[in-house]
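Colleagues,

For the teaching module next term, I've prepared a clean inverse folding example: a structure given as tokens, and then the sequence designed for it. I'd like students to try predicting residues themselves before seeing the answer, so please don't circulate the second half yet.
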């Protein structure tokens, strides 16, 4: 019998919400928030006003990491500069055995210049279910 498992990943943005409400000293405007290896440019440039699509990008980055054991970008020196100055390495350059349709989807999901391709989780989920 085939067993289905559901995995849920969540980041509720609580630190950001508490900061905006004036209730936290942990993530203040002008400080860094998040893990650069899983951040798109938009989050580095303007964390305070980042849109939900940054979480879709981060989800794709996590998938990339789970499949390859490597971060989407090459990080040398300042990690925030790497986010701002480099693009994600195509996933099949890290692992050529990843199926082509899945690789194309992950690469598309990790586009963050000039903007993030997937704007919401439902669209990303639908594209993901078609590609696997």
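(Answer key — instructors only)
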């Amino acid at each position: 019998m085939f067993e289905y498992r559901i995995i849920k990943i969540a980041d509720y943005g609580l630190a950001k919400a508490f900061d905006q409400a004036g209730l936290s000293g942990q993530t203040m405007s002008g400080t860094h928030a998040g893990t650069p290896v899983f951040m798109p440019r938009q989050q580095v440039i303007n964390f305070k006003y980042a849109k939900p699509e940054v979480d879709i990008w981060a989800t794709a980055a996590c998938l990339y990491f789970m499949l390859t054991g490597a971060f989407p970008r090459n990080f040398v020196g300042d990690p925030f500069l790497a986010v701002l100055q480099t693009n994600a390495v195509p996933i099949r350059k890290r692992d050529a055995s990843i199926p082509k349709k899945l690789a194309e989807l992950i690469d598309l999901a990790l586009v963050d210049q000039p903007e993030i391709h997937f704007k919401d989780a439902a669209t990303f989920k639908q594209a993901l279910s078609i590609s696997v």
